[in-house]
Amino acid sequence: MGKVFNVMKDETNDRPLDIHDYLVKHPASTFFMKMEGDGPEGSGIEEGDVLVVDRSVTAKRGSIVVMTEDGELKVTKFPSSDDSAESSLWGVVIGLLRNF
Amino acid sequence: MVDCNNFFVSCERLFRPDLIGRPVVVLGSNDGVVVSRSEEAKKFGVPMGVPFFKVRDIVKDNKITLFSSNFELYRDVSDRIMFVLQEELGEIYQYSVDEAFFQFTEKSSAVAKIQLTDLKQTIEKKIGVPVSLGAGKTMTIAKYASEMEKRKSGVCVLSGTAWQKLTPQIPLSEIWGIGGKTSVNMRNHKLNFVADLLSAPESFIKEEYGVHGLRLRSELSENPAHQPTEREGLQKSIMHTRSFSKTTESLAALETAVTFHIERAAEELRAIGGKAGSLSVQIQTSRHGDWLLQSGRQEIILPAPMSDTRTLLRYALSLTKALYRSGVPYKKAGVVLGRIISENFVPVSLWDQYEKTDEDALLMNVIDNLNAEWGNDAVTFGRLKKGGQLDHDQHRSPRYTTSWNEVRKVERKI
């Protein structure tokens, strides 16, 4: 049949693909969290998904973020509708892990 | 230098923002001893290094949140901080789990303060652990500086006149490298403050405190005497382990083996010019059959990098006692001295090689007293569960960053 080639193969090296490289840009400031219940509306995040949260990234309008609200960590779209003094940004969700 | 504030507590608070501003205490040594406190817990009078039972009432009455040491979490957070520091600064010299020294050149103290404040904000954003930064012409001064502003702006530069005008007010007991015994000795010689040491005759310093005293004086007069060197040449850990020719159920036999291993490992450590920041002890059963799950391994992070056999031995033996279960046939015992750094940038105690820092002395005192008063089983301060797991870490938080089953759960905002 001829050669089977992987179009995604990195031309610069021959290592097998590593999910970590793909997902995690800043390992020191990246943390994982697990979604309990549904994700924010329109986010595409489902229950049980593992969120890849990066603290070093700047949140933009429309980003999904983890915030501290009254001492609890919550996932929401940025900017959050009620910017109370009790809430602050914890990190930005930059990716998802999901097993089927 | 960079120094994390109440490090273990801060690690817990990273995933528990509800605990910011609340009193928190972290226990170590199998829930026996207080090893970290939040500022609020300090205000309630919880001292460092005391056995838990002594503060049980204070904790209960004030609803202080309690944690067992979650070393995996703390190690991971520490590694992240060191990684970011390295990224920002190039070369750093990690001194302990939550402290690192680095060099930078800046003529103006005011500009230095701005740069360090920037660095502080970067670390706090990227990792979420509050830190203090201190700078001075020498490591000893930098370490003092990091303490000075800890509860205020968190950044302090002490150089030239700024440092010199403080020397008559800084008690020698607060200086890195001066332990309890030495500061008492110094007080007896009318040396109470840094300025006193600086103006004492050199011959007296040399005679009474030796070359280490001279080094300290040099450091305090803004002439560096400690040489941080890269760890590149040093191995990261030293392991000593051996199987027994026949199995043993005797604690004494295990202690003898561990003693032997510590003595050899510590010798090797000193021979390579290193100090260890962590110690772990492992006792293993035979690989077959029912006893497989009864093996035990425990690692502790030492209060400060050290290499003296006596102190290492005391920690190792108390770990051995805590891991030991009677009636179990053990086949192997071993130790690992980890997080090795060069001794060149750790000040040797002025009194003698075996003087410990006050914290360390407190900790060892407590562990020894516990073993003496209550017998071997007391050090665990918990109950030994069937099935081999030591039931001591009752209050340990989830290993948020090292175990998939234990990652932080979050809900969406309503």
TrEMBL record, chain A:
Domain Peptidase S24/S26A/S26B/S26C, first and last residues per copy: 10-80
SUPFAM superfamilies: LexA/Signal peptidase
Protein's recorded name: Peptidase S24/S26A/S26B/S26C domain-containing protein
Lineage: Bacteria, Candidatus Kaiseribacteriota
